[in-house]
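Protocol step 4 of 6.
Sequence for Carbohydrate deacetylase (Biomphalaria glabrata) entered exactly as in the expression construct, tag removed. Do not edit the line below.
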Amino acid sequence: MKRYLIITGDDFGFSWERNEGVMEAFNKGAITSASLLLNCTGTEEGAAMFKSSQLCPGLHLNLTEGVPIANHQYKTLTNETFNFHGMLPTPRLLDAGNIDEEEIKRELDSQIKKFIELVGRAPVYVDGHQHIHLHPKVVELFAAALKQHNIHITRFPVEINMAAKEWVNPEYMPFFLAMIEKAHVAKKVLDDYGIKTTDSFVGLSTMGRDMTPERLQKIILEAFEDAERRLSSDKRGFTTCELMTHPGYPTHRILGGFSWGSDDFGCSEDRIHEINVLSSPEMKDFYKQNNIELVSHSILLS
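Step 5 output, structure tokens:
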């Protein structure tokens, strides 16, 4: 069975440094798609890079960091500084029912429309910054917005055997496992709205310095073999997998990123490390030896 691997560069548009790294990775054949943040210092440059290249354009829907896109002062979706509440507070507020769904709807629609305005076309796919698109209080609003704008592809960030990845920082594991649980629940909603995903997904366990050629090869093979077992009777003759990555160059602490600057993740040298691993001869040989073809999200349109 043919194996199609989509390699996505997340947080495109975060800064000029991130954009430079994403495009370097793309030009080296190391990634195939990129997910654009709309409220960052490199957003407009990233949108222009979509227009001048064959990089597959995606929207990185953001409800957790920075300022919103809608020209509206939200009462519940943002804090007293009119920034989103943050990666950890936002899900807690959603869980408690303290964020108005009408404000979520407005922001979803505004971000899709802003992407179309900047790029000149709708995104091929939409995923969620920090996977917020699959939160139980967001996923149906998200799926309805995609359907309204004739977008049919998103991310299903479930990496199998996640708890067994002993190299992952144990501080991150509860967040990853809780998010995977939410994703499983959200899948029925996506299916009901006709929103497609890849057959498998990897990348939670290989962010930054946790990424090595050996680990990437292990998780990618596990993902394809699992998908092939589940879909053995599928008449398509192929399976698909998405690898989530974060290539780039370190962003300036104050001058790049969101309205308040960049966090440690954005400033880290780990962004360069990912470029080097993804474009390494070891990975290119691995793809050839294991019948893996690198493709973009456009493969899911057929």
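Step 6, annotate. The chain has a mean pLDDT of 96.
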